[in-house]
Amino acid sequence: MHNPSKNLVPISWIFKMAWRDSRKNRSRLLLFISSIVLGIAALVAVYSFKDNLQSDLDRQAKELTGADLIIESRKAINKQTEARLKNMGDDRATESTFASMVYFIKDGGSRLVQMKALQGNYPFYGTIETTPISAAKSFFNDQEALVDKTLMLQFNAKTGDSIIVGDLKFKIAGTLDKAPGQTGIAASVAPIVYIPLKYLDKTGLVKTGSRINYKFYYKFNSDDKLNEVVKSLQAKAEKEGLDIDTVAERKEQTGRSFRDLNRFLALTGFIALLLGCVGVGSAIHVYIQEKLSAIATLRCMGLRAWDAFYIYLIQVSFIGIIAALIGAVLGTAIQFLLPIVLKDFLPVELSMQISWSAIGQGLLLGLAISVLFALPSLLSVRRISPLNAIRATFESNTNKKRDYLKGFVYLLMVAFVAGFTYLQMGSWLQTLVFTVGIMIAFLLLMALSSLLMFLVKKLIPTSLSYLWRQGFANLYRPNNQTLMLTVSIGLSTAFICTLYFVQGILINRVTLSSGTNQPNMVLFDIQTSQKQAVTDLTKSFKLPLMNQVPVITMRIEEINGKKAGDDSTNTRAFKNELRATYQDTLTAAEKIIEGKWIPKVNNANDVIYISLDQNFARSIKVKVNDKITFNVQGMLLPTVVGSLREVNWTRLQTNFRVVFPGGVLEQAPQFHVLMTRVPNSETSARFQGNVVRKFPNISVIDLGLVLKLLDEILSKIGFVIQFMAGFSMITGWIVLVSAVLTSKNQRIKESILLRTMGASRKQILAINVIEYFFLGLLAASAGLMLSLAASWGLAKFSFDANFIPPFLPTVILFISVIALVVITGYLSSRSILNKPPLQILRNES
Amino acid sequence: MLVSCWSSYLNIQPLENILNIRNVSKIYQSAGHELTVLHNINLSIKTGSTVAITGPSGSGKTTLLGLCAGLDRASSGNVELAGVLLDKLSEDERAAVRNQHVGFIFQNFQLLPTLTALENVMVPLELRGLKNIKPQAMELLDKVGLAERAHHYPIQLSGGEQQRVSLARAFSNKPAILFADEPTGNLDAETSEKIIKLLFDLNTDAGTTLVIVTHDLDLASRTSRVVKMKGGLIIADENPTYA
User: Fold this and answer.
1) Residues A125/A62, Cβ–Cβ less than 8 Å
2) Radius of gyration of chain B from its Cα atoms, rounded to whole angstroms
3) B177 pLDDT band (50/70/90 cuts)?
């Protein structure tokens, strides 16, 4: 009579039913899933960019360095080493790089630049890009210079004009468009001026304490020979203070930097995707709720629970693939924008091509993520009782027993987020931080939204007009998506606001450091013989002498009797040159936190107690009472760590990691730093011009320029972040549109009911606008609160700065989000208002 | 336990009673309180008979229908449908029983909105895995006078037409028992009359047992037996004057 085996529904019928059931819903389903399109697009674009960048780095690796081998030294090379370096390679070039002031004669302006004194056929691969092209070679022939294009623009200089570098005048042979491996951002921070090396000595810029990087470029015709040379050099390099850089290393280093950038880009894309997933999950939930009756009817007719589940799983998977496909196509198109967005950060020319592996990853990700986030709602299909077909108010729409499978799916979601993050970051700690961070952000937004909803509910006066009360009450309608919308819109608001606030914090930190009583100009490399004259010049401009300190260059020779070779765990301590000072009083930025400050050494035989910055002491692994021997320009100076200081590095003043007491270094070779405050940019320009003309070796840092540069860099970085954050913002908006359209049926019913009872079009419009106003208000408030908390945390713990939110921009952002939500909501539901109720009833019933 | 259930499938003798309900109670949890909707109901329905279950709102008739059809599980007691004890079966096993033996007619038609009239009629047969069922479904649509509207979607049909499609669908799998929940509840008097006539005509042709839940005493009086309910109890079980 009854054969259970007959009840196995053929899989073909499940597919057929999925297709039939999706009729009239496909565009809606696509709209739900469209929330993930931009997230997928962002990731495909980033992956494609990564693939293309990697292949371009492989192809243009040699152009990055311009040579097969670069040897670099921060100190002058001894004769023996120099002799050896001169005979290496099949071709060679030499370069001395240092910071120096350049004076533009025609304009009268001056600026600190990165001076490169070059000799030889460098670059051996690629070119120094100049306008005119011939200038790259011709400037060697005469007393000529290549000047970075940003400088040419800043000082309105033209080819043929002259600049003064040190004691010499150079004619500008051409504009430097791009040095090998140089990025746009590097050119902004440290613009380059090339001069022939043969004129360097005559400039008079190489003096005691001058920080010069000596570079030796080599070309090798044979890789074996190159490897042999590198191998032989590596053994001696550390001892002689040489850094060795090969094409492979530079490629690896550049690749590493871009890996970080790609990780960042991929994670911001992933945030947009997650936001979309929240939208998908919520929309599918509403979709299934609307399907309740159809599912119950099918169950009455004998459809098994799992078969009902499969019908909707197939629908979601299919639409997920379509969304992923659209995302992949869009992402492939967007990848062509990324080189434009990132142009200032790229050291190589990018040749963008379609990356099939990126498209494949996007498709897989789209399918996996749409199914995964729809699963909690899809699983509830299994539990829809057939009783729903015969009674609308069935006591329970679904089985109330706990669904462990759903719990497993939630775990799977967390595992997916963590797994994806790990694939991007490659570090479990960073994965944990990101995953927990995202979860906290979501939970906080949910908590904030719930709290705000609760507060508004409590605070809305009952005496308020019906329209206001109804508008707010609409947020609580059955199957409402209020919480999901406040989370998705709130998260994108938080994202954008935090970005804006952090940019402000960084700018403020530098701006505040130039408060009215703080110095805003630093003169360094002042020789002892120039000290008095510079002081006089400063005074003649009626500028205050705010800080004048001596600087002595030295190296650490021994720590507690151990030399560089004896302690392999502490190589960093011995590697770099240090700049120390001597003083008999602590500055306002310094505070002793351990040991005792000894201001002066009275007798030549007394122990010299020095003071170290606490972080520096930690990094070189020394404590109070440890012994350090310094090599001061060849003279060994034994000292004892007398105290550790906490140094406020954020103040614009000279701070030192190593401070000697008075009475020790007064006679050592030294240069001086002077700080002053210039009242305005005109005085600054005149003063700088005078300094450069009279003391060409002295470098001047103008805080105004630093601020301008910082603003420029942050704007460039900000643009990249905003570009990626844009994906989240638009996703948040799509989720909003999707949610509004999802609830359209319910709105129609409400609207008809109200209009039948005599409500005017205007009144219904007001109710809708008030509803969206509250929604926008809740989302913007939650997002802003999260952003303020995050920015405050970043300011306090990361940037050590105060955070005062900018009032006007905050208010504008807040109002903009609310306005966007209200306008979107109004436009989406306008069609309901403009038609007579009967027509809508006929169309929509 | 299951063995005894499945063994009953092998019983191919025509059953005297298509439905046996013994001491069935149904209790719902509502707002933390227990709400007893059915109290110790006993009811047997003879194969091929027509039965009406009547009673005021909240009397428990729809709940009883749900239990009879295996849509829900009783809190206590036994429900035996077509010789199968439903109480110990899983939801999917009950679904299999419904597909093999049960047809439904709903007050609000419950046509699947995304399927055409023809596809709606085909669904119960397709769920059995049967092939080439279109002629059979078309024949049924023809019987209910809707052959020409076979490819229309429910939204394109009037209420009466939708209920006729629903009738065709209910009879498509040749059910042993047909449950009708207020089949004319959403229709005007004239259309109701046509639907009732069609329902009884189809039922006579198919020899199906018919169980109708209704408020409509006129409709109830057309059945061979009327079961009256109140407060979750059967208060009367009688044969109407003209059966």
Assistant:
1) yes
2) 18
3) very high
Domain with residues B47-73+94-238, CATH architecture = 3-Layer(aba) Sandwich (3.40)
Give the residue from A3, A11, A300, A396 with the most B CB atoms within 10 Å of its CB, the best one to mutate: A300
A-chain residues near B100 (CB < 8 A): 1-3, 6-7, 302
Contacts of B60 (CB under 8 A, 6+ apart): B26, B37, B38, B229, B231, B232, B233
CA distance A167 to A770: 72
B212, HSE (Cβ side, Cα atoms, 13 Å): 27
Residue A317, classed as helix, strand or coil, is: helix
Examine the pLDDT at B120 and tell me if it is beyond 80: yes
d(CA B72, CA A57): 67
pLDDT at A510: 63
Residue A756 has pLDDT above 80, yes or no: no
Which residue(s) pair with A592 in the sheet?
A645
Higher-confidence residue: A400 or A85? A85
> Which of A353-357, A711-715, B37-41 is predicted least confidently?
A711-715
What residues in A contact B62, CB-CB < 8 Å? 390-391
Task: Quote ipTM for the complex.
Answer: 0.83
Q: How far is A393 from chain B (nearest CA, A)?
A: 12
pLDDT, residue A163, reads 92
A841 touches chain B (CB under 8 A): no
Give the pLDDT confidence of A376-399 residue by residue, as tens digits.
Answer: 989 989 888 888 887 655 444 445
Instruction: From chain A, pick out residues whose CB is under 8 angstroms from the CB of B151.
Output: none
Quick check: pTM over 0.80? Answer: no
Is B127 in contact with A301 (Cβ distance < 8 A)? yes
- pLDDT tens across A194-213, in order? 999 999 888 887 765 567 88
Considering only the beta carbons, identify the residue of A300, A395, A845 that sits closest to B30: A395
Cβ–Cβ < 8 Å for A136, A180: no
- Of all residues in chain B, the one with the smallest CA distance to A391 is B62
Which residues neighbour B29 within 8 Å (Cβ) at sequence distance 6 or greater?
A395, B35
CA A694 centroid distance within chain:
42
Total residue length of chain A: 845
Q: What digits encode the pLDDT tens for the residues A90-116?
A: 898 999 988 888 888 888 888 888 889
Q: Where do the domains of chain A lie?
A: 1-58+258-426, 69-219, 449-515+703-845, 521-702
Question: How far is A230 from A217, CA to CA, in rounded Å?
Answer: 13
Question: CB burial class (10 A; 0-12, 13-18, 19+) of residue A336?
Answer: middle
Q: How far apart are the first and last CA of chain A?
A: 41
- Alpha-helical regions (H) of A291-391: 292-300, 305-334, 338-341, 356-379
Average pLDDT of chain B? 86
Tens-digit pLDDT profile for residues A3-51:
444 456 888 889 999 999 988 788 878 877 788 888 899 889 888 888 8
Quickly state the pLDDT bin for A454 (edges 50, 70, 90). Answer: confident
Comparing A769 with A756, the larger pLDDT belongs to A769
Residues 338-367 of A with CB under 8 A from B: none
Position B42 pLDDT exceeds 90: yes
DSSP codes of every residue in B23-53:
EEEEEEEETTEEEEEEEEEEEEEETT-EEEE
Contacts of residue B186, defined as CB under 8 A and 6 or more positions apart, other chains included, come to: B107, B108, B109, B159, B163
A297 part of contact set with chain B, CB < 8 Å: yes
Q: Smallest CA–CA separation between B179 and chain A, in Å?
A: 11
CB-based contact B114 A21, cutoff 8 Å: yes
Tokens 């540069």 sit at which residue? A709
C-alpha–C-alpha distance, residues A69 and A233, integer Å: 11
Minimal CA separation from A294 to chain B, in Å: 6
